Design the sequence.
């Protein structure tokens, strides 16, 4: 396989064939992210992509899923993206699902019909980084979209038949807007009604603008108990028809896996126990990305 730069994938794609069809992120402006710093977004040559698919056809016969990376592979023009997924179908017929990162920009650039067409070629899930539903925080961290636009694009993906997994960041709003961020994120998640939600706890990355703000005293990183209060408020304000809410990432202080709405009250009670000191939190040295 030909890999370039930093390769990231969702935790749920750990056992997937990781096929890098683009390098970097088409947005690459988020203040908290240092993954693609200095990396110019580009689509990899078709010859390299096809060579990697051929490699997978020989040596990756045990994996049943493919994940297309890097940061925003869905932004690749439809005709070219279709040729890639069609080749995956042809050479890897045992693959049952193709996953891809998506942001609001790339979803806007795809028509509902194009998304549905990708669905017919085994593209089954899109992973979208919302981070927060608070418009003030979205602007501060330079996500390049509004909460309403995220709602529209999330619903667009769902209507096309794609499963949708949304990532949110605990602590991203700092201390002053912590609970506002929690409630507004719950509002946006409820409006989209995704299949999966992954809540990560903010870990500041040296070299990012948000880390600089922290060093200069412009951003306050909330403490573990404040993270839990934020998580509790977010879950309390999230109303799903049938979705999984995960907060069991390596960065989280309290592992949570809840089916909403069924497990909501039980999960809130668990967080309350942790806040009262009856459940130990993950120590800092075990929090790692």
Sequence:
């Amino acid at each position: 396989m030909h890999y370039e730069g930093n390769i990231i994938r969702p935790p749920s794609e750990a056992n997937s064939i990781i096929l890098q069809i683009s390098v970097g992120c088409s947005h690459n402006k988020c203040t908290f992210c240092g993954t693609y710093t200095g990396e110019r977004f580009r689509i990899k040559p078709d010859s390299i992509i096809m060579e990697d698919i051929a490699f997978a056809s020989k040596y990756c016969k045990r994996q049943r899923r493919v994940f297309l990376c890097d940061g925003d592979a869905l932004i690749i023009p439809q005709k070219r993206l279709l040729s890639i997924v069609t080749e995956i179908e042809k050479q890897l017929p045992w693959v049952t699902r193709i996953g891809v990162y998506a942001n609001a920009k790339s979803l806007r650039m795809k028509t509902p019909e194009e998304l549905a067409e990708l669905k017919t070629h085994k593209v089954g899930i899109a992973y979208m980084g919302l981070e927060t539903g608070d418009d003030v925080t979205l602007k501060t961290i330079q996500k390049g979209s509004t909460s309403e636009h995220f709602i529209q694009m999330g619903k667009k993906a769902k209507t096309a038949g794609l499963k949708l997994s949304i990532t949110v960041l605990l602590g991203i709003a700092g201390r002053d807007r912590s609970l506002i961020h929690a409630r507004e994120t719950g509002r946006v998640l409820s409006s989209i009604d995704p299949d999966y939600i992954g809540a990560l706890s903010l870990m500041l990355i040296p070299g990012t603008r948000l880390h600089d703000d922290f060093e200069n005293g412009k951003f306050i990183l909330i403490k573990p108990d404040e993270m839990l209060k934020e998580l509790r408020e977010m879950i309390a304000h999230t109303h799903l028809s049938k979705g999984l809410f995960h907060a069991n990432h390596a960065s989280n202080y309290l592992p949570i896996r809840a089916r909403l709405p069924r497990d909501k009250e039980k999960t809130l009670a668990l967080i309350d126990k942790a806040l009262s000191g009856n459940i130990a939190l993950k120590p800092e040295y075990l929090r790692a990305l």
About this structure: The radius of gyration is 19 Å.
